[in-house]
Design brief:
Jelly Rolls, Arc Repressor Mutant, subunit A, Homeodomain-like_sf
Amino acid sequence: MSTKQTFNKDRKLDKRKLDPSEIQQNFNNLSIKLLCCRYWMLDEWEWNDLSVPFWRLYYNSLPGAEIVYEKTLTSLGKDSIILIPPHTSFSTHLKSGLTGSARERVSGRKMGKTDSLQLMMNMGKIDHLFIHFNLGFPHDYVRTQIYSMACTTYLLEYIKCIKEYCLKDSDLFPFLECLKIQELITHVLLELPESIWEARKLDNRINNTIQFIIAHLPEKLSNEMLAERINMATNSFSRLFKVNIGMSVQQYILKKKVELSCNLIHHSNDSIDELAYVCGFSDRLHFTKTFKHVTGITPTIYKKQFILM
């Protein structure tokens, strides 16, 4: 075959449609971003009014832990998987009552291969598998709730494999282990009521702006620049944003920056100064002041009290 014939054949192949249908399909962009997957032994688990910007999946083999959400108590144990959407404010309880200090007490360590569940139960301790993840906008902004679902034999096999890998001394999760974690998450998400995914109807321009803000959060984002992107006058854009979101543009940006910093405190080893820089604050003082205004405590206290080291 001559060079010209080969070229003409390649051109015909390039024009061939990969999809035989004339109807173009649009798919919802779904991405599970894993933040952490850990298996711990806990002897204290007293949280008050905890709200974080990521999904949490919990599974305990041993009984004794409880979650309180809007005065409703949910027990953790071997027969159920708990799923908690981002921004859900809840409390947890293990040994002592929920009264007392306004802040939580958390004590525990990574589970080891030689740890005995029977001995732990006799000592009043629990095992605790927790997976943190994000789904992105708008799926990280669903209705807040505590979801408890039956742990089937099928899901239990995945949990068993995930726990076994967490017991190893490696922080690197291979491709197949990540697939197992995502498979578990996917099956649990499919058990949620369909109504949870019905996103609040936002003006398309505001929807576009929110996605831009999240993608460029550490940058300096002025109302003028954001308005210009969507061909709106600054005042009109600011009013439309507040009507759709319920707060001003800059209040929203600061709230998202604090949420990003909370996420990084949970899932990175960044210092307070590094967090201030990464999240787009002018300096540590500005970051600390804003963080305390939003959460009620400083990032230093948050880092000490909210993280199992």
